[in-house]
Design goal:
The chain is mainly α and about 180 residues long. Among the domains are: about 50 residues, no CATH class; about 70 residues, no CATH class. It contains six helices and four strands, in the order H-H-H-H-H-E-E-H-E-E. Helix 3 packs across helix 5. The longest helix is centred in the middle third of the chain and has 22 residues. About 5% of the residues have low confidence.
């Protein structure tokens, strides 16, 4: 479960760093934005340009995660040269700070507030959740209407509130963390 979340986070970060946006597939995976298919018949899974406001919000969250925990440095580091023990120690030291930075920036609530790993009925609003991209069915679902339940693998997360401040105009809104020189 953790590694699935980490992999999705890394894919999102990579997409943002490469193009400045999240591509359509990632947005749908996150349930952030519902993207209606184009009526032209051509499938376009390319990036959607983000507004300046969205970019500033994303950069602000990345800035908090980097400043408080060094998460961006960790995610961009080539981890092949570290032992599992070194990685575990680094993650254990970094996670509380990253968690606090995230909590200060946004309040997340579960999409489905039930215990993971248990066989459960689908929520009463499952059709609406499914249509909005907030619920996924994995495995071998025949038809949505025929599915009544399953094992909840991930509760999902939804942004309930965002606590983002507008950075001063003098700051470059695209800088996640400034370059730092130590001088003697």
């Amino acid at each position: 479960m953790f590694f699935e979340r980490l992999q999705l986070g890394l894919r999102c970060l990579s997409s943002i760093l490469k193009s400045g946006t999240l591509n359509v597939a990632l947005r749908q995976s996150l349930g952030v934005v519902r993207v209606e298919p184009e009526v032209t018949g051509e499938e376009d899974h390319g990036a959607i340009a983000a507004s300046d406001e969205r970019i500033r919000g994303a950069v602000q969250i990345l800035r908090a995660l980097q400043a408080d925990s060094g998460l961006i440095d960790f995610l961009l580091e080539d981890l092949r040269y570290y032992s599992d023990q070194q990685l575990a120690q680094g993650v254990r030291a970094m996670q509380p700070d990253a968690r606090e930075a995230l909590i200060r920036s946004i309040r997340l609530v579960p999409v489905v507030d039930k215990n993971e790993g248990e066989l459960q009925d689908l929520p009463s609003d499952a059709a609406a959740l499914y249509a909005s991209g907030s619920l996924q069915l994995r495995g071998n679902p025949a038809e949505f209407e025929a599915v009544h339940g399953g094992v909840l693998r991930h509760r999902g997360w939804r942004v309930a509130e965002a606590y983002l401040l507008t950075p001063p105009v003098s700051l470059d809104s695209t800088v996640v963390h400034p370059a730092v020189y130590e001088v003697e």
